[in-house]
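Researcher: Good morning. I'm working through a list of sequences from a screen, and I'd like to move beyond sequence-only analysis. For each chain I'm collecting a predicted structure so we can compare shapes side by side. This is the next one on the list. No need for commentary yet; just the structure.
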Amino acid sequence: MEAVRLEQVVAEDGQMVITGLPYKRGQWVEVIVLPQPQKTVRRSRLTVRQLRQSGLIGLWQDRDDIEDSTAYARQLREQAQQRGDIHYDSAG
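Model: Good morning. Structure tokens for this chain:
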């Protein structure tokens, strides 16, 4: 017996639609549904060259409303930490 493995996200509570199976009408099959752990998306890291070409360096240089970009970045990090959205280590 050849197994067919499919992975999909449940779009509506309690419902799944499975299509494209290699079986014929009237053929008996067994369906086992197992929950999977939440997949984490791995973010790729930029090389120095990619970072320089990204436009991130100097992004705030022409803004008149930011006098000290380091202080401004620190303030944004602190606000994000208070919301619980982002966690930085003490070196960040």
